[in-house]
Amino acid sequence: MPDITVEVLRYQPDTAEAPYLESFTIPYTEDMSVLQGLQYIKDTVDGSLTYRWSCRMAICGSCGMMINGIPELACHTFLRDYAPGPIRVEALNHFPIERDLVIDATDFMEKFPKITPWIEPKVAKKPSEGEYLQTPAELERFEQFSHCINCMLCYAACPQYGLDKDFLGPGLTALLHRYNMDSRDGASAKRMELVHSEEGVWSCTAVGYCSEVCPKQVDPANAVNQNKTKSAVDWFTRFLPGSKP
Amino acid sequence: MKKRSNAPIYWSLFGAGGMLSALVGPGVVVALMSGKLDYARASAFAHNIVGKAFLFAIASLFLWHAAHRIFHAIHDFGIKPGFGSWLLCYGVALGGTIVAASSLLRIGF
Amino acid sequence: MSYIRPMEGWWKKNPFFLRYMAREATAVFVYLYGLLLVGGLVNLAAGEAAFNGWLAWLRSPVGVGFQLVCLAVFAYHTWSWFVIMPKTMPPVMVAGKRLKGSAITASGVVIALVASLVIFFLTVTP
């Protein structure tokens, strides 16, 4: 079996002051993901290696990390494409490192509820009145943005988030947009308040890397930049009678 | 209540300038390099209301587009753009706009 | 104690970011060219002699060099502008299907080419 060298950025706060690179040379097979490589290291070489994972099939969003400097899901990235290496694995960019490949996602988690990430019905209906109906065309308007798995690769990709943690960020703006675009929802005005602020869409400079790295093709760059136009139009028309936020 | 940003003003000027420079920028550069522009032609064009509008648009909007981009690029380099940066960027764009307008008005109809 | 990584030199570490910075850098030349145009209007308003002085600078080696650089930079601006433009737009439906970003980019570039040719011919033809 061929070997591959995996360089992991280790950070063990209880034993060392700063992160350091540690090299592991491991055997690999054609079908092994980077996640499986990490699991091999943890199981047979160094049990202290710490990382998050769950579904191992690119749907839970747990295993986001930097692989050769690019935000990727470890379960979705294959050792065969980097052999013989070295392949460099580091914790997700722009988040504080807690230990090894585990980051502190507090900022993302604290921002999450602020976007009102649920449907507040435009017209409240009792269950006895039946379901909220939606045509395929209405579904099409928001469906893409509902595919977000909260993996935060887009936050690792976004230099504006890296430079300024106040920025709402790509993923949450995409989710915000998902709800605004849903025909059943009536809470647009509340969400637009966030959008209109400096920390909303106006921190974005259309780098576009967020959409490049998104494993679910959510296209957060599109969500953010569509809302720039919305926000700008509203800025100019807000004092006109009959304008909707 | 989150404070509303006034970025839309700058961003709209940036967008207009960016679109204009993207569409006519290369053409204007080549036209001015052609050597076929002389005082007579330039003056005739500038006396015309359409000509005035076009000349004002390219002079002013190019500056507003560039100002916004440069201002934000300063931030990208890790520097918090202060009033000095604002003057160098938007201040110059504003100044250039005023000078362009007054020159075109002085040229008359 | 969590470790916070510095952002220093972030844009040098990924080709995507280098292209982004190149795109942003085009603004420096749009700025300088804008100032040149304002200068042109000031000199035009000042009269024939002044305007001829401005034209002479355009013909000078520095002037020609500057304009050639501007041409290349403006071409990159045109390209990168229409590459990012689809990202700013809501979905555009054509015959029941969503219009691809690449189609919008191509259209923009073609329109820019036509507009630039029109301006060139309007300037050079008597």
Describe the protein's topology:
The complex is a heterotrimer of chains A (245), B (109) and C (126).
Chain A: E1 3-10, E2 20-27, H1 34-45, E3 64-67, E4 70-73, E5 87-91, E6 97-99, E7 102-103, H2 106-111, H3 136-140, H4 153-157, H5 159-163, H6 170-180, H7 188-196, H8 209-213, H9 220-237
Parallel strand pairs in A: 1-5
Antiparallel strand pairs in A: 1-2, 3-4, 3-5, 6-7
Helix pairs in contact in A: 6-9
Chain B: H1 7-33, H2 39-47, H3 49-76, H4 83-107
Helix pairs in contact in B: 1-3, 2-3, 3-4
Chain C: H1 15-46, H2 48-59, H3 61-84, E1 93-94, E2 97-98, H4 101-124
Antiparallel strand pairs in C: 1-2
Question: What's this model, at a glance?
Answer:
The complex is a heterotrimer of chains A (245), B (109) and C (126). Chain A is 31% helix and 14% strand.
Order of helices and strands of chain A: EEHEEEEEHHHHHHHH
At CATH level 2, the architecture of chain B is Up-down Bundle
Mean pLDDT of chain B: 95
Work out the helicity level of chain B: over 70%
Silhouette of chain B: elongated
Helix content of chain A: 25-40%
Number of helices, counting only DSSP H or I runs of 4 residues or more of chain B: 4
Q: What is the assigned CATH homologous superfamily of chain B?
A: Fumarate reductase/succinate dehydrogenase, transmembrane subunit
How many domains of chain B? The number is 1
Q: Looking at the chains present, what oligomeric state does this protein adopt?
A: heterotrimer
CATH topology-level fold name of the largest domain in chain A: Fumarate Reductase Iron-sulfur Protein, Chain B, domain 2
Written account of the structure:
The complex is a heterotrimer of chains A (245), B (109) and C (126). Chain A is an alpha+beta fold and 245 residues long. Chain A is 31% helix and 14% strand. Chain A folds into two domains: 3-103, Beta-grasp domain (Ubiquitin-like (UB roll)), CATH 3.10.20; 106-237, Alpha-helical ferredoxin (Fumarate Reductase Iron-sulfur Protein, Chain B, domain 2, Orthogonal Bundle). In chain A, strand 3 (64-67) and strand 4 (70-73) form a beta hairpin. The relative contact order of chain A is 0.12. With 109 residues, chain B is mainly alpha-helical. The model of chain B has no long low-confidence stretch (mean pLDDT 95). Chain C is 73% helix and 3% strand. Chain C contains four helices and two strands; from the N terminus they run αααββα. Chain C has a two-stranded antiparallel sheet with strand order 1-2. The mean pLDDT of chain C is 95. At the A-B interface, helix 7 and helix 9 of A face helix 1 and helix 3 of B.
